[in-house]
Amino acid sequence: MAATIIDGNQVAADIRSELKEKVTKLKAEKGLTPGLGVILVGENPASISYVTGKAKACEEIGIHEETIRMPDTTSETELLQIVEKLNNDPKFHGILVQLPLPKQIDEKKVLLAIRPEKDVDCFHPYNVGKMLIGEPDYLPCTPAGVQQLLVRSGNDPSGKHVVICGRSNIVGKPLMAMLMQKAKGANATVTVVHTGTKDMTYYLRQADIVIAAVGAPQVIKADMVKDGVVVIDVGVNRVPDATKKSGFRLVGDVDFDAIKEKASAITPVPGGVGPMTITMLMMNTVTAAEKKG
Ligand code: NAP
Looking at the predicted structure, is the pLDDT value of residue 293 above 90? Predict the structure, then answer.
């Protein structure tokens, strides 16, 4: 069976156009423009590119965005002062501190300083806890993107066995908490595998849905999954490729070419989960503004 390719760019474009409509309505009916304050510390090229992508998405949807750029030498106190300024500025409904931060700054301390109602990345323990008990104000962006891809591609996880590979705080753990909820777009039986799992293949072969978030190129092979499986590949890995000008290409955590012949649906890398993450950040920012409206 050749799999349906789940087009993350298309799903993201659909959601962005829904958000644009919501923003137009918020402006017209309540005179309210959703605002996102982004803080970028240092010159990390990947961070600069992520922040640029977020600013572009805001512009497309009609969200007011300001990026505050701070030097590599910024102290923790200086950064906390800026976070507090944005906390108190009603123009900004959401605050995002681009990670990673320079080593002199305690990342956890900074994320804790963001007021939970402005925590549109959903990294604050308050929001993580609310999600866990099934009363979320926001959902973390990459896991929420995965859930939207499943639901909008006609692969609702309800009643399915989902195997998540990876247990990070930003992908695996929150996904587990989201998909096991007795809620729409969830209600799945969830297994999480990681480096402590003795026989990962044993679990993967039982999965109706595999979500790969391990950060290792193409470690999940076709003989590790069952026929008709749905695969969401979160992984983004650089592998050398002499045919490319950059000298590398991006691949996911699964062996896409082989698994697409066996799966019923699969996301590509790039063009799968990637475009969804920023889109869900936009969704959280609009939600934050709606709560104020
Ligand atoms: P991470 O913090 O490095 O966590 C990786 C997890 O996978 C860990 O729990 C680790 O287990 C587990 N793992 C690693 N190798 C494994 C293996 N061979 N077998 C089984 N488990 C294994 O990574 P992350 O932040 O979750 O990101 C995962 C991938 O998703 C990365 O490629 C990242 O670039 C990508 N990502 C993409 C987006 C997007 O928007 N597209 C967003 C976020 C992340 P232990 O806990 O035992 O170490």
Answer: no
